[in-house]
Amino acid sequence: MTDHRGPTLRERKKLRTRRALVEEALRLFTAKGFAETTLDELVDAVQVSQRTFFRTFSSKEDVALAPEKELWAAYVAELERRPHDADAGSPLGELLETMFGALAGMAEGWESRFLASRALADRTPALTAHSLRHCAEVTDVIVERMAARTAVDELRLRLTIELMVAAWRWALRNWSAEAGEGADRDALRRWTRTAFAALPGVADLVSEERDRLGDRLGDRPGDRVGNG
Predict the structure, then answer these.
(1) H or E element that contains 176
(2) Which residues bind DNA (predicted)?
């Protein structure tokens, strides 16, 4: 039997506290600077204790990048919920549709927080490094989940996922440049569709060069994948 009960009062309170911390952190970090804003200033502004903060986030970097991490958590959850098409040849289509499902399920106002978070990360080296580490960790998780759903070998699977992530980052750059101060989720979806639509053409370019690359390297890429 499916449980249709909504979140409890305690869960709703935790979500409100989490959102308040994210919104205030982004406001303070944007106005004062990430390094210049202390944790004391943040928790005082939200009127919570540091203990409450650390029950919700692990660090200032964690709260600053919360919108990005929320999206990728939703992506993994969406991937796990989606029925796998055993007849599908490439996992690329499944990976791309999962992104649109994750975007559709994000909370109201998420895109504004995400835009502010990305703008902050773009000018803060510590956040850029944290974001890249998180991206690598999420990629590992997606590879693991997809490996259980497809017969594609680990190398090709990982490269396919990395290609999807590269397209996503291109979409983000263009969306951010276009958005200015106003975040539009529909515009983010449009840029994402444009980026993802180009991926089959990238695969065609690689296919056209496969023989030449194979001659140069001595083996075709992947010929020895899985061999001892």
Answers:
(1) helix 154-179
(2) 38-57
- The predicted model scores a pTM of 0.84
How wide is the angle at C-alpha 76 spanned by C-alphas 143 and 100, nearest 5°?
A: 110
- Name the DSSP letter for residue 107: P
Report yes or no on 51 lying in a domain: no
Cα(188)–Cα(175) distance, integer angstroms = 6
pLDDT, tens only, 12-53: 899 999 999 999 999 999 999 999 999 999 999 999 999 999
Would you say residue 184 lies in a domain? Answer: yes
Closest CA to 63 of 76, 50, 79, 77: 50
CATH code, 121: 1.10.357.10
Determine how many CB atoms are found less than 10 A away from the CB of residue 121: 22
150 within a domain of the structure (yes/no)? yes
